[in-house]
Structures are given as C-alpha cells and as structure tokens.
Design goal:
One of its GO terms (biological process) is purine ribonucleoside monophosphate biosynthetic process. One of its GO terms (molecular function) is adenosine deaminase activity. Helices cover 52% and strands 8% of the residues. The chain is α/β, with parallel strands linked by helices. α22 links the parallel β5 and β6. The longest helix has 22 residues.
C-alpha cells in the first residue's frame, strides 16, 4: 500500500468549490444564465495555479477537458465534480463510507484543509460506483426527522476502516493527552450558527478587524485577504445573509416543496441586501431542517443528498448554480476556521485564534464532548480525554469557565442536550455540578466505556514582549505579573471549590513559543505544584526560528521547569525532525536575534559536552559563544559564568530584584507559604552565587543590553552538519528519557505547522523506531498521542491514529507490525494520564 496524492482532477474540483475567483464569476452571472465555460476555466485555472505551479499547463488542461467531457451530456459540472472526488477518496465498507487508507493523508492535507467534506460525502453516496450498493441504506422518507442516535450528529469527520485497527480500538479505546477545548469545534457546526445568527457570530470578528494598529487585527486582515482580497466584516456578513437565504431555497427544492411557478432569485447580489428582504418562500419546511440551536451536520447531509438526487432526476441549471454558490460561500467561511496546507508555521495558525469566529460556538461545550465521543452510540471511541482551557484572572471568570465546561460534560454523561432540555433540570451552581458528577462516577464502573473520562489541564498563555522604556524593570515584566495573578486566582478557585481538584489536574503553557521562554513560567509552575497541581506539561520545540532554537526551548523547559516523572513536553518537533529534511526545506540563511542566538549556542555547547565524539565541535561552539556573549554584554564573559547565571533563570525575578536592590536578608512579608518558598530560593542563590545572580539581573534588567540582544543577525541554517544536529537531538532525547518525561505527539498539527509535506515524514515514526526512520544512536523515549486543535485541522483523534498507521503501512510495513509499533503511543496516554484515580 502506497500513499497517493490528490489527483489533478480533485485539485481542480476543490478549486471550483473554494476559489474567490470562481465566486466572483458566479456573483456577476445571473442564476438562470449558464456559466461560460471559458470564463469558468480561467477562474479555476487561476485559483488552481499556486497549488501545482511546477506542473506544465497541459496537465491542468487535459484534466479540465476530461471533467467537461465526462459531464457534457449529464447533469452539470458541479455534480460531476462532487461524484468524481467522492469516487477518488471514498470506499464502502460494511454499508458505510470510509476514506481509502492510501488516500487519507491527501484527504486531510489537500482536500478538507480547503473545503468541507460534507458535500463530497454526499457526492460519494450518489456516485455511480457506490449508489447501487448504498441505495437501501440511503432511502429516507419525507418529512425528514433526524436519527434518534446522537453519536455522530455533529461530527463531520470521516476516517479509513481497517479491521485490525478497528478491533484494537474497540478493545483499547483512544487516550487523548493534548487537546485544546477551544479550537475543537468543527467548522461545519460554526457555519450553521453563522447562518442562523450572522450578526452575533461575526460581531467580535468585526471588532477585532477594526482595532487600529493592533498586531492581532493586522493578522486577521492578512488571513481574510489571503482567502479573498475583497473580504471584510461587512462583506462577510452580507455573504452569510445570502447563504442563509440560499439554504432556504435549496432545502425547499430538495424536499420538493417549491411551487412550479416559483420565481427564483435573480443573482447572488439580490440575496445579499439585508434591507430588501424578499417575501419568505411559502413552503412547509420541516422544523428539523430549519436553522435552530439543534441544527446539526446530519441535517445538512440529508438535504444535500436529497437535492443532488433531485438534480440527477430533474436537472435544473439554476438550482445547480445556486447550490454551487452556496458551497463556495460555505468554503470561504470554512477557510477562516481551518488551517490550509498552504499555511505553514505557528504564526499562520495563530491567525485563526485571533479572528474570534469560533468563540461564540465554543461557549457551549456539550457538542464538543459529543463529537469526541465518536460515531458509536454506546461506547466512546475515546476512553481518557484531557481538555485544555485557559484560566482567567478573576474568581468570577474562572467560576463561569469551569461551570460551563463541567455542565457541558454533565449533560454529555446524562445524554441531555442543554439546548433542548428543561432549564429547571440544569445544575444552577458550580458546587451542584461537582456534586452531581461525583455521584455519577460513584455509581460507574471503572471499566465503563460508555462515555469518555475527562481531565482538565489549565494552560497559561505565552505573550510577546517588546523591549523599551515602557517594558518595565525587567524582561517580560507585565506577563510575569499577569502569571502570578492568574496562578493565585486559580489556586483560590481550587480552595473555594475543593471538588474541582478531581477535574483540574495539571498545568501547561501554550501559544507561540517564539513569544515567551519557559523561564517566565518557572515560579508559577512550582507554586501550582506545591498547591497540588502535580501534573505538568509544556509546549516546546513546535515552531522555531532555527533548529537550535527549538532544541534549546525543549532543553530549557526540562531544566527550568524541572519536568520529570510523568510530566510531558507538547510537540517536541525540533527533537524529532530529521536534520537532513529540515536543512532541505529551510533557506540557507536564517535571521535570528543576537541574544537568542547566544542562548542557542549555550544550549548546544552544554549538550555537546555530553557527546564524547564532539569535543572539537564543542570547543568551536565555546569560542563562538564567548564572542557572542561579549557582544551582548560589552565585556568578556566566560562560558561557564554565562552557564551558571542562566541556570538561575528559574527564580522568581520579582524577588531577585528585591534581593539585589534592597537589604533583604530576612525576606519579604507578608507572603503565603507557597510564595515564601520562592523568596527563599532567591535568598539561597544570593548567598551561594552572588556574582552569577548579578549577571542574571544584568541580562534581565539592563535596557541597553536589551537593545543589543534584540539586534537581528543572519546565521547559517547549516551552522552544524547533519551528524552534529543528530548528536544534539540524541543528547536531548537521553535527557528526556533520564527524566522519564513523555512527549505528546500531534501529527496533523505538526504537518500543518512544521516543514513536513506529508505524514510519512513525521518524526513520530522515528520515535516509534520504525525501520528506515530510527537513527543510529537514537535512545528510546516515551510518546503519547493527541489531536491538539481538531477543529482547526479538520480532524479528530481517531484520524490521528489512522494517519500514523497509514504512514507506517505506506513504508511497506505489515498491518500487524504497524499496529505493534503504534499501539504503545496510544497506551502511554492511558498509563501516564493526568486523570484523578477516582475516575478510573
């Protein structure tokens, strides 16, 4: 079995369903006019070109002509496209449609990173190849009522089917160790909300867009205009209004309730003007297909399926044009919520978190717990689930957050949709929710897998720091203050509601690692650990300016946060990516900050000293490090002195300032016992290493030094050769293994954010010690599996497992051997879960 890329025909079809150039053509052509094929070809070609720019034009031209030829005498180009993509990617297994395993990587990367898979699933259901076999299963009576089964109603994700994998997952279940609850709502569910309440759903997007000079606003505008140069909050709102009206027409046509003499709208512009509402379509729409809080993807699949059936039987060019327009509007909105394979790096990812379009949907946690359950009614695909949330800076906000999450989970456990149940049955207070959850699990067997078991990990947010006169007395001054406040409020919340400790199980620090280093979290990590939050993890080595920077961040996280004994590192890509691949994908010269490069060289020097064969290389690095440190500090600094000073970065800098600038021999009072221990650490360092503490303070507080350390310089990507980079990775892997730290691997996230082109390049194959990937000298490390932000990456944990399984199978590895290599990653998640033992 070999991995197969998306065909050119599929690329053309995806472009037809998503390109703003095609939308512009549809917009200026009345619905009742046929599209000019030359104009449509040109718009499609211009949208397709960046995707396969290195292919000659005849490759596109021949596939385009084949598509036109195949549909010349049938029901229209759109239906042909949906069926062709469906035929390429779907297969029928046991009366259900699944993605072909050899096509799953291309499906995840090339297709559903750009467009919703729902209409393609419908196209597959109606394709000539599959239609006869699925006819009985697809037969539905009108009026439509949704299935009573709740599983899968809001899960628009399709995976492969492999009997050996399915048998394993039925027995074992999946164990999620890294999932951000905000970021897990699928775009199709956000779309239905946006159609129902366009003004409310885009309000925060509009506010963010219009903040003058805000970096976040700039990022949001960049994202939107990369999708459609004409997109703006006003334009987006008008498109949503039009799409909502299109949906009404299309549902009416799908259910055969349009009158024969009905007059269709003239064009898209006629549907976009909110002030000139046309008279509502007079037809008896089923209440289940009206947009409401209960609308789900199962409804969408039904009416799209019925519409395509109608068009196949009684073709209407007008209705096909209207449906095509609806899908492009949907996919344009989709592109604001899902990271495309064209968008590399964490900065691109973060734009999706800035635009606020997910935020209204993600106030409700119930649908996400339902989606993570999977499609089987009486057993959850996921056994143990760790959901990450960001703690707030006030007790009231934390109360609201924990109440919302746990109330959604309580509703999931009790099979009650909070949007339709009697409000009187809702637990009114957080304490009541906690009691009910405790009562539920007292009566539940530890072996019960009917629902997944939840643990919450609170993650502090990394924020960027800009040096200058207003930056405060030391580096990251404002964020350090915010972190202490947030940690104190979090611990107060756990004191106020002690039962929360059953659910709030660990801490993390997330967001862009280029913005903030591990050291600023050290003091809060220790205080939280002493207060009982003993499980710790940290995002590191995910995105990096230089491979050395990524390795250094992981090394610093291990040391400065003192991670060990079941603690974890999130991602760790820098420690796993093959140096040869990284060097091939990056430019020869990279721009870095001088102070960052100094720390990179320090970490490299320290790691190389543990490699017996790298003595000469370590000596060269020491010379470069001393030179760089001299330029930063404007005097000669030995490598050993710099090492000793930088090892003290874990100290609470507020107390370092007090210790060095005041006569602080007794301590600062009043302090809680937790923070008093942090003050004592500083006093101990002042007595044992006064010169090193002063050197650290100079690094942290000297504003002229800040300016020098922020100076940009160009360095070679190949500062080391491949062998030396491998030695550095392996030295770091030995440290990870020695500390008994687990690495959380997140395939879709890493492929989308890092330099990978496919899942078959992913570093977890190396960590699994797959033949051809494990490098000579690689120590064994422990790895667990997570899905990160499944809504942003249009996947789920089941898909992550299958992607790695497929990547192994694509190397010619047998099914049983592939599962034997992969299963330990899943099982580490169970063995090293953060869950309270009370939950099983």
């Amino acid at each position: 079995m070999r991995e197969q890329p998306a065909s050119i025909l599929a690329q053309i079809g995806t472009t037809l369903l998503s390109s703003y150039k095609v939308l512009a053509l549809l917009r200026r052509t009345p619905f009742h006019h046929p599209l000019n094929l030359r104009d449509l070809r040109e718009a499609t070609y211009l949208g397709y070109l960046p995707w396969s720019a290195r292919l000659p034009d005849h490759v596109f031209e021949h596939s385009w002509q084949l598509l036109v030829q195949q549909n010349r005498n049938s029901t229209g180009l759109l239906i042909g496209v949906l069926q062709a993509i469906g035929d390429e990617f779907f297969e029928q297994r046991h009366s259900e449609l699944h993605i072909k395993q050899q096509k799953f990587a291309a499906w995840q990367q090339s297709i559903v990173s750009r467009i919703s898979g729902l209409p393609l699933l419908v196209g597959a259901q109606l394709s000539e190849q599959l239609h006869a076999r699925l006819a009985n299963e697809m037969h539905m009576q009108w009026p439509w009522e949704p299935p009573q089964r709740r599983a899968g109603k809001n899960l628009p994700v399709v995976s492969p089917y492999d009997p050996l994998v399915e048998d394993y997952l039925r027995r074992e279940g999946l164990h999620e160790t890294h999932l951000h609850l905000n970021g897990s709502t699928h775009a199709e569910n956000c779309w239905l909300r946006a159609l129902r309440m366009p003004k409310q759903e885009t309000k925060d997007f509009s506010l963010k867009w219009n903040i003058p000079s805000s970096p976040d606003a700039v990022a949001v505008r960049e994202l939107a205009r990369s999708i459609n140069p004409d997109l703006s909050p006003t334009e987006l709102h008008r498109q949503l209004v039009a799409a909502g009206r299109l949906r009404k027409w299309l549902v009416a046509a799908a259910t055969d309730t349009l009158k024969p003499e009905v007059q269709f709208p003239h064009d898209l512009s006629a549907l976009m003007d909110e002030e000139s509402l046309q008279e509502e379509i007079p037809y008896p729409m089923s209440r289940y297909l009206q947009l409401s809080a209960q609308s789900c993807t199962a409804d969408e699949l039904y009416w799209m399926q019925q519409l395509l059936r109608r068009l196949k039987n009684r073709y209407s060019a007008t209705l096909e044009r209207m449906f095509h327009t609806y899908l492009i509007l949907q996919n344009q909105y989709y592109r604001l919520l899902v990271q495309s394979e064209e968008q590399f790096g964490f900065d691109q990812f973060q734009k999706f978190t800035y635009n606020k379009l997910r935020d209204p949907a993600e106030e409700d946690y119930f649908p996400r717990f339902l989606a993570m359950h999977g499609t089987t009614e009486n057993i959850s695909r996921t056994t143990y689930l760790e959901g990450r949330i960001s703690p707030k800076d006030t007790l009231r906000k934390n109360h609201q957050l924990f109440k919302a999450v746990l109330d959604g989970y309580w509703c999931y456990l009790n099979n009650q949709d909070p949007r339709s149940r009697n409000i009187d049955s809702t637990p009114r207070k957080l304490g009541e929710v906690l009691v009910r959850l405790e009562e539920h699990f007292r009566k539940t067997s530890p072996l019960d897998r009917s629902h997944h078991r939840l643990a919450l990990v609170v993650h502090f947010i990394k924020k960027s720091w800009t040096p200058g006169r207003k930056a405060g007395p030391y580096r990251f001054y404002k964020q350090r203050q915010e972190l202490e406040l947030t940690a104190n409020v979090l611990l107060e919340c756990l004191t106020r509601w002690p039962r929360l400790r059953t659910w709030v199980r660990g801490i993390d620090a997330a967001a862009n690692e280029l913005h903030a280093p591990p050291e600023i979290f050290s003091s809060c990590y220790r205080v939280c650990q002493q207060a009982g939050l003993t499980h710790r993890t940290y995002h590191a080595g995910e995105d990096f300016a230089h491979l050395l920077s990524g390795l250094r961040t992981i090394y610093e996280a291990l040391e400065l946060l003192d991670l060990r004994n079941g603690d974890r590192i999130g991602h760790g890509t820098a420690m796993g990516i093959l140096p040869k691949l990284w060097l091939e994908r990056m430019p020869g010269q990279l721009v870095v900050k001088k102070g960052e490069w100094m720390l990179d060289l320090l970490a490299a020097w320290r790691l190389l000293r543990t490699v017996p064969s790298a003595v000469a290389t370590a000596a060269r690095v020491a010379d470069d490090l001393a030179k760089c440190a001299g330029e930063v500090f404007r005097r000669e600094i030995s490598c050993t002195s710099l090492e000793a000073a930088m090892k003290l970065r874990h100290l609470n800098i507020r107390f370092v300032q007090a210790a060095l600038e005041t006569d602080w021999s007794v301590g600062i009072t009043p302090l809680s016992d937790l923070w008093q221990s942090e003050a004592q650490r500083v006093l101990d360092a002042k007595h044992s290493s006064p010169e090193h503490l002063k050197l650290l303070w100079e690094w942290l507080s000297d504003q002229d030094l800040w300016e020098r350390s922020e100076t940009l310089q160009s360095v070679d990507a190949a500062y080391f050769d491949e062998t030396t980079y491998l030695h550095l990775q392996q030295a770091l892997m030995r440290e990870v293994s020695h500390r008994n730290v687990i690495i959380e691997t997140l395939p879709s996230s890493n492929v989308r954010i890092s330099q990978y082109n496919s899942f078959s390049e992913h570093h977890s194959l190396r960590w699994m010690r797959a033949p051809g990937f494990v490098q000579e000298g690689d120590p064994e490390i422990m790895v667990s599996l997570g899905s990160d932000d499944p809504g942003v990456f249009a996947g789920d944990l089941n898909g992550e497992f299958y992607q790695l399984y497929g990547a192994l199978r694509n190397q010619g590895i047998s099914d049983r051997t592939a599962l034997e290599l992969l299963a330990p990653i899943n099982e580490r998640g169970r063995a090293y879960r953060f869950h309270d033992p009370f939950l099983g």
